[in-house]
Amino acid sequence: MQYAYFIGTLLVLLPGLVVFALRKDLQKEMLWAGAVALPFGFSEIFFREYWRPPSLFNLIERVGFGIEDFLFVFSVGCIAAIVYEVIAKRRLQKLRQTKGTHLLPYVILALAYAGLEGFSPFTSIYNAMLALFISAAFIAIVRHDLIPQIIVAAMLFGGLYFLLFLAFNYLFPGYISSVYRPEAVRLGLVFGVPLPEILFAISVGALWSALYEYTRGFRTRPLKASAA
After folding, report:
1. Residue 217, exposed/middle/buried by CB under 10 A (0-12, 13-18, 19+)?
2. Is residue 153 within 8 Å of 84, Cβ to Cβ?
3. Residue 77, Cα to own-chain centre: how many angstroms?
4. Three-class SS of residue 199?
5. 17 Cβ contact partners less than 8 Å away, ≥ 6 residues apart
6. Contact predicate 19/86, CB 8 Å
7. Buried b (16+ CB within 10 A) or exposed e, 80-116
8. Residues 168-178 pLDDT 10s
9. SS3 sequence of 141-189
């Protein structure tokens, strides 16, 4: 079990590597989305009541977060950002000229999460979900054209994450019961996958699928055969 979390993060990263190789038009968005997700690797320090995974060099136990946390959030950010474009066969189109990067949804996410943690520090996974949904709702209010993308991407990434978790459980049976705390399974399991994990993936898909389009001034349009 010592390397299970690390292998699990590589499992999440794998689809992203495939897309990165096949869809050069999405590479910039993937790298940007993964990069802005990286700071949330530090949030592992708030999840001790949720799970206690063994990590490389025992970093999570020693300092509160590990290499796996940053690899995980980077991978999740990369994939959630482009899952809609890939499955729906769409590509980016510039909507407006932008001066700088409009990161208000990102700021809202950070402030909402910090505020929720201050109010209820022992429900970190639910705080993260709610903060993600709040920020996604802001984008939906400002950019109505992104609402379908937000909804569809949330479901797509939730489904993909669920399938990847099933594969992880197959590789590491008994991991959930040995690492996750009662908080993780309070809402129940779906074929062995903690329901909070699925809901978390849905919330990530909702925000990260539209974050690049909002901040950089893009929309998506159908992918033509010649645009790959």
Report:
1. middle
2. yes
3. 5
4. helix
5. none
6. yes
7. bbbbbbbeeebbbeeeeeeeeeeeebbebbbebbeeb
8. 999 999 999 99
9. HHCHHHHHHHHHHHHHHHHHHHHHHHHHHHHCCCHHHHHECHHHHCCCE
C-alpha 110/C-alpha 150 separation (Å) is: 19
Q: Residue 138 corresponds to which amino acid?
A: F
Here the tokens at position 212 are: 């690049």
**Residue 6, token pair as written in the block:** 């690390």
Query: What long-range pairs does 135-140 form, CB within 8 A, spacing at least 24?
Result: 135/105, 135/106, 135/108, 135/109, 135/207, 136/105, 136/203, 136/206, 136/207, 136/210, 138/104, 138/105, 138/108, 139/105, 139/207, 139/210, 139/211, 139/214, 140/210
3-state DSSP assignment of residue 192: coil
Q: What is the pLDDT of residue 96?
A: 66
- The one-letter amino acid code at 146 reads L
- Residue 225 clears pLDDT 70, i.e. is over it: no
Question: What are the domain boundaries of the chain?
Answer: 4-222
Over residues 101-120, the pLDDT tens digits come to 578 998 999 999 999 988 88
Residue (of 124, 10, 127) closest to 67 by Cα position? 10
* Distances in whole angstroms, Cα of residue 19 to Cα of each of 22, 23, 25, 75, 92: 5, 6, 10, 12, 15
Hunting for tokens 């992203």 — which residue is that? 16
Rounded-to-integer distance, Cα 135 and Cα 37, Å: 14
pLDDT confidence band for 210 (50 / 70 / 90): very high
Residue 1 has pLDDT above 80, yes or no: no
